Automatic annotation (TrEMBL):
InterPro entries found in the cross-reference section: Thioredoxin-like_sf (IPR036249)
Name listed for the protein in its UniProt record: Thioredoxin family protein
Gene3D superfamilies named in the record: Glutaredoxin
Gene source species: Eiseniibacteriota bacterium
Tree of life domain: Bacteria
Amino acid sequence: MSTRVGGWVAGALAVSVFAVGCMQAKKPVPAGIEWNQSFTAALVDAQAHHRPILLDFYTDW
C-alpha cells in the first residue's frame, strides 16, 4: 500500500513540476512582425541572424 501511495505522490509531483515549467515564459514575446519589403535588406538581415527568408507571392488573376 505504501508503494502505491508513493507512486501517486511522485506522479503528482512530476505533473506539478511540468505544469509550472510550462507556465513560465522562456523568451519575451515580440510585439509584432517587422516586414522587409526590400529583398536585399531582408537577405542581409537573414544572413546576419542565421534565419530563413519567407517569400510571399500573391496575384489576383
